Give the backbone structure.
Amino acid sequence: MGKVICTGLGPGNPDLMSVRSDRLIRGAAHVAYFRKEGRAGQARRIVEGMLTDSVTEYPMEYPVTTELHFGSTEYRAVLAAFYDDWADRLADVAARGDVIVLCEGDPFFYGSFMHLHSRLQGRVEVEVVPGITGMSGCWTATDQPITWGDDVLTVLMATLPEDELASRAEGSDALVFMKIGRNLPRVRSALQRAGKLDRAWLVERGTMPGQKVMKLTDFDGEVPYFAIVVVHGQGRRP
């Protein structure tokens, strides 16, 4: 009897992966990872060259991404069935030996594996290996501390309504906006209303090849999936 082990891969650069994750991946007989249908998948790209020739791979392809609104009943039903199915499959694999599940960033920080973790409880042993978050990689790429002294840091999903984004941005010292994509105009407007647009930085593909770091006020265009907006705190310091 094996177990399901989810390894946090960190923000994208393989050099920022933990030693434990590296060891588990290089010795894995079974590896599973999420990806969009028809794509290689970012998690799989990060471990390129690390897997043995004999490894068995299990690409877990999302049935929907942006085709349905994430708040719709249909979207939730389709995703629930997807996670139910893969929880069953991984439990079956774990009955024969360990299966490594790859997760970008940290598995317990908005990671897709959380939905499998809850479904696997009581069925098979589960281990989670933490990883450096994507946002940590991004704010480090700006070469500035994200918080000072007693700054309050707030992490926001850009999918939230603009009014809520603006309200929370106004009440916090340091900010991280995730899930940017098509929501960038909403984030920009919210920061303008909160009086913090001039302090905002946009980081694309943080720690990965093609990384770009720029002031948000200098950017005009579309952003890739792997993009984060950060506002640094300006709090107490010696």
In short: The helical segments are 19-26, 42-46, 73-94, 113-120, 134-141, 162-170, 184-194. Residues 164 and 184 are 15 Å apart (CA to CA).
